[in-house]
Specification:
This protein is α/β, with parallel strands linked by helices. It has five helices and three strands; from the N terminus they run ααβαβαβα.
C-alpha cells in the first residue's frame, strides 16, 4: 500500500562501485557509478532504503556506496527525508543493520524517519523466491502503515 501519487524509481546499482579510497578520488575523481547514484538521490524527493542485514550490520557494498556518495560535491542526503527498512532470516529482522545505517544517515544530515520502524524477520518465508515480491499479508500491512506515516513526516520536514 503505497501512496498513489508516488513514483518509485530504483536507484542505480551499487555493486560495481570500487572500494572507497581517498587517494583514488584525489587522482581519478569520482567514479561514474557514484555520480549516477548521487544524481539519482538528488533527483528524488525522498529515499527509502530497504536492505538485508549481514553479520549484525549493513552490507559492505551499501556502506561503501554511502562513503563514496558522501564525498561528492553537494552531498545528496543533506536534508533528504529517508525511510529505513530491513530484513533478515533471523527474528530481529535486521534491527542491528538498521541502527548502524541510521547512525550513518544522521551523520550525512539526512532527515531520518524513525517511527514506526519496519524490521522483517524470517524474510526467507515472506518473499516470493522468483519475483522477490513481499507475499506475507501481515508484513505488507506493517510496511503500508509505515509508508502512510512517512507521508505525513515528509510533509512536516519538507515544509
Amino acid at each position: 500500500m503505497r501512496p498513489s501519487a508516488w513514483t518509485i524509481t530504483e536507484a542505480p546499482g551499487i555493486g560495481s562501485i570500487p572500494p572507497y579510497n581517498s587517494d583514488v578520488q584525489g587522482s581519478d575523481g569520482v567514479p561514474a557509478d557514484v555520480t549516477a547514484l548521487a544524481e539519482a538521490i538528488h533527483a528524488a524527493d525522498v529515499v527509502i532504503i530497504a536492505s538485508p542485514e549481514y553479520n549484525c550490520s549493513m552490507l559492505g557494498v551499501l556502506k561503501n556506496a554511502l562513503d563514496w556518495v558522501s564525498r561528492t560535491e553537494d552531498q545528496p542526503f543533506k536534508n533528504k527525508p529517508v525511510c529505513l527498512q530491513s530484513v533478515s532470516m533471523g527474528q530481529l529482522g535486521g534491527a542491528r543493520m538498521q541502527y548502524h545505517l541510521g547512525q550513518v544517515m544522521v551523520f550525512l544530515g539526512a532527515d531520518v524517519f524513525t517511527v514506526p520502524e519496519v524490521f522483517i524477520g524470517a524474510g526467507h518465508q515472506k518473499f516470493d523466491a522468483d519475483t522477490l515480491a513481499l507475499t506475507d499479508g501481515p508484513t505488507r500491512e506493517v510496511v503500508g502503515k509505515q509508508l502512510a506515516v512517512f507521508v505525513d513526516y515528509i510533509g512536516r520536514v519538507s515544509a
